[in-house]
Structure formats: C-alpha cells, structure tokens
Amino acid sequence: MRVTETIGRAIALPFLILIVLAQAALAGEANLGPDGVAIQGHDPVAYFTEGKAVPGDASLTATHDGATYRFSSADNKAAFEADPARYAPQYGGYCAYGAAQGYKAPVEPDKFTVLDGKLYLNYNGAVQSTWVKDTAGYIEKADAFWASQ
Over the Cα atoms of the chain, what is R_g? Predict the structure, then answer.
C-alpha cells in the first residue's frame, strides 16, 4: 500500500464513522416539526378519548423520548404523563403504512387509526384507505422495520 493510500484512508475513516453515527442517531427519531413538537401540535390523548385529532394548547406540554406533545386539557396532559407509552403514536409519529413499506413519511394528523390501544398515523386519506385493508399485516411489517432502525 502506498503512503498516499494510507493517508487517504486515515483521513476518510473519521468521516465515515461520523456518517454512521449520525445515521444511527437519526434512525429512531420522532416525526417532529422544527419547533420539536410532535403530531403537528395535536393532543395524543384526544385520539383515544374523543376519537378525533384535537389541536393542543402550547401552554400545556409534556416531553417524552425527546418529543414535545401538546394537550387540549390539563386532564389529558396528566393522563399522558402517567403513561406516555400508551398515548404516544407508533413509529415515532411517522406514517404507519410508510413504515410498513420501509421508510419514514410525514402524516396528516387527522388521518389516524386507534387499534388495540395504539395510535397509528397516516400520510393522507388515500394511504389510510390502503392501510385499513390489512392493518395486521402492515403493523407486522412496520414493527419489523421500526425495530431495525
């Protein structure tokens, strides 16, 4: 091996390590807005209690796994703080169908499914129509994808 090859590899290796570490750090990240808020500011508990997407109040927040969640009431905030894993969306708040296909896609907060006590969000209405045709199969694929992240 020539000296120039050795030097080139010595210089390239730290950059390669940084790229791998950065990808690892981003792998499990949540779907957040630029302000660090999850579900575009919608109340995660309201999906369970009201059956719809309800905007949260910026003065009622809690943090879980690096994401800030907003709530429409103090009761919803308290419920979330008591059991955040119960209310936080699956797959970091990314589209559940997208996760089943092996990628992270944004969501429309009003396109969702609560199934077996878990919140699944979808990219849009068309994707949600596909998602509901085989939720069990898509959940199995999405779980495997998310576990590999």
Answer: 19
At residue 36's C-alpha, the angle toward residues 81 and 24, to 5°, is 95
Tell me the pTM: 0.81
Residue 99, both tokens: 């996760």
Q: Give me the sign of the Cα torsion angle 17, 23, 28, 31.
A: positive
- Distance CA(101)–CA(63), nearest Å, equals 28
36 neighbors 68 (Cβ within 8 angstroms): yes
For residue 94 the two structure tokens come to: 């990314």
- How do residues 127-139 score in pLDDT, each as one tens digit? 999 999 999 999 9
How many helices (H) and strands (E) the chain has is answered by 7, 4
